[in-house]
Amino acid sequence: MGIRNYSYKLINIECLPTSVHFNLIMNFEDDISELLPYIAARLPGCTYIHGTNVINYPEKYHIIAIKPKEITITRIKDSREAKEICEHWKNFINETEKMRGSISPVYEKKLEIGPLDVFKALPGTNCGECGLPTCLAFAAAVVKREADISECEPFFKEVDPELRQGLMERLEQAGLVERGIARNERELNERSKSG
């Protein structure tokens, strides 16, 4: 069963009393426990282990936890954004319910790439072209979905093509780059070797 009705509340972030952002708690009467493996299958880069009843999903600047009767989301600006996000997740879950027959459920899914994995493949110049002070800060931002690997021009100009291709494939598997980008990178590498 999907979500018919929901309520939400915004709460202050207790550990950051000067923050201008809120945490959102979206509650619903409908129990979506049975849908969690199907929702996890549709969320690239999420973490889910069947039986824990929680999907953790980093999305851009938010951290989202999807539970059987509740969704919590960090870093919400105001009520308008809260309402939009609640509607998005209600629709996403209801679409998942409708598509359930065509989705292969996932019972265990972990993000298999961390900031150090990304950092090791970066050029290490700390040039700041990405807008961040160091390559390590950029790598952490990529994993948290706060930056895109394409923002590091030296990565595409200075890094060994095979190393670059390997990272692109891992980023794709983790849902941190669009599908097909790693394949395009692989094709470019093969053309450059044969040409």
C-alpha termini separation = 55 Å
Structural class: alpha+beta
Under the CATH scheme, which class of the largest domain?
A: Alpha Beta
Q: How many DSSP-defined strands?
A: 7
So, CATH architecture of the largest domain?
2-Layer Sandwich
Low-confidence stretches: none
* Largest sheet: number of strands, sense, barrel closure: 7 strands, antiparallel
Hey, roughly how much beta strand do the residues contain? 15-25%
Order of helices and strands: EEHEEEEHEHHHHH
Query: Rough shape?
Result: globular
Query: What is the rounded Rg?
Result: 19 Å
Average of pLDDT: 87
Widest sheet: strand ordering: 1-2-6-5-4-3-7
Domains (count): 2
Within the CATH hierarchy, at the fold level, what is the topology of the largest domain? Answer: TATA-Binding Protein
Tally the helices: what do you get? 7
Percentage of residues in helical conformation = 25-40%
Characterize the structure shown:
It is a single chain. The chain is built from seven helices and seven strands; from the N terminus they run ββαββββαβααααα. By secondary structure, the protein is an alpha+beta fold. The protein has two domains: 6-109, TATA-Binding Protein; 115-194, Orthogonal Bundle (3-methyladenine DNA Glycosylase II, Chain A, domain 3), CATH 1.10.15. The termini are far apart. The mean pLDDT is 87.
Provide the descriptors you would attach to this structure in a database record:
195 residues; alpha+beta; TATA-Binding Protein; 3-methyladenine DNA Glycosylase II, Chain A, domain 3; seven-stranded antiparallel beta sheet; 7 helices; globular
